[in-house]
Amino acid sequence: xxxxxxxxxxxxxxxxxxxxxxxxxxxxxxxxxxxxxxxxxxxxxxxxxxxxxxxxxxxxxxxxxxxxxxxxxxxxxxxxxxxxxxxxxxxxxxxxxxxxxxxxxxxxxxxxxxxxxxxxxxxxxxxxxxxxxxxxxxxxxxxxxxxxxxxxxxxxxxxxxxxxxxxxxxxxxxxxxxxxxxxxxxxxxxxxxxxxxxxxxxxxxxxxxxxxxxxxxxxxxxxxxxxxxxxxxxxxxxxxxxxxxxxxxxxxxxxxxxxxxxxxxxxxxxxxxxxxxxxxxxxxxxxxxxxxxxx
Amino acid sequence: xxxxxxxxxxxxxxxxxxxxxxxxxxxxxxxxxxxxxxxxxxxxxxxxxxxxxxxxxxxxxxxxxxxxxxxxxxxxxxxxxxxxxxxxxxxxxxxxxxxxxxxxxxxxxxxxxxxxxxxxxxxxxxxxxxxxxxxxxxxxxxxxxxxxxxxxxxxxxxxxxxxxxxxxxxxxxxxxxxxxxxxxxxxxxxxxxxxxxxxxxxxxxxxxxxxxxxxxxxxxxxxxxxxxxxxxxxxxxxxxxxxxxxxxxxxxxxxxxxx
Lengths: 295, 259
Prior knowledge:
heterodimer; B: six-stranded mixed beta sheet; 8 helices
């Protein structure tokens, strides 16, 4: 096509007016999906399906191997699990572990809160927190257990000490970085309402930083749970009593391998329950509802 | 004329960046009277937002004083409610209604029942009654700004401070919001300082306009806007041209224009 002459006038076109069709008159404005489409889209069903397939593979391999001392079958593991729950006091062991965990977790979160408060209000606190986190975050809490055993002996205090260490740093780090990244506008809104000090922290900073705080609590929980089980493996051997970790070692010692598997299964189940039920519920009720979730 | 509501006297504002000390405004003075729609107009970087923050009490002048009803402003307070440009000024963890009630409840000025009643009334005034129980993330930008305006007005502050509240909105929504703001003013006759960099917005929204020069901001002029009734579109256009010439009568620009 030849370029039009520069001086050629642009053709005048007539105006156009029309009326839009009312939205109610459309054939489909929005229509629910079919049941099959909903099922195919359901994440929970997908997960359950995968779990069933994995259990089946395990069962087949166990039967083929036919060696209870190395890999008991899935059914034997479930049977051992049910049996331990009913007669072997597995639930009691779980309770012992959870109790220790809750104490350590609560103490860790409290210390993290105090440290973060200090870091939020003073420059010294901020620098101190950053240095301490950089130092201690890479150190696996379980590495402190030998030291804890020397300092506190075979008491629950040793376990609490390593638990606090595993919870404290991730919670403090995430809370602090959450506070720091609260938008200046929200800060000004808070100040505008005359909020100062603790009320400002409680009513503006904590909710605004809640996504980070929740992440910290989740990481802290995951670290604490893994640390506790590991600590109990060592601690139990030395003290001859304890929770879930001790249950695993003890059954290994008497070569009751299905029970070892049952113990491991319990560790997984509790981990999943806390991460996918408790934390997920908190998340949907808070940051997802508020549109503050990043993922 | 009676005593001004707000008296800004020769205010110089400076703030520190990482490695500079920046003078935002130099000896700016103006007075705002009750029920005025006072617009501070200037190009980007003339310190108009900084000036508003100083009136809000977020920063202290290095020179000069700012007095509200004769009292020197020292810190932020609910007698000067601010509306910001950013959409994230709403508390995302509170519904529209809870957002509007928040300042009334935390200042303890009103009982929960009175606060709820007042929130209902002001949410109605900004036409958001149907969205009162929604969370901010479900609202459009214009709706969020309306909530922020309702929240500030519900406090019935001495003066409303608006920092380019419509700047982040699309042009159509922006015009609608300007009209709604004027309707609200007709009803309540609140006093406000409105910061903007749009000359057209200044003329439309303001009753009196303060022109600031860029870098650092100094007063160029203080003009009356065209009356909202009885003035033809020509008057507004003439004022717009006049303001435009005043703002861009800088030597460098003049030379460029001649070249």
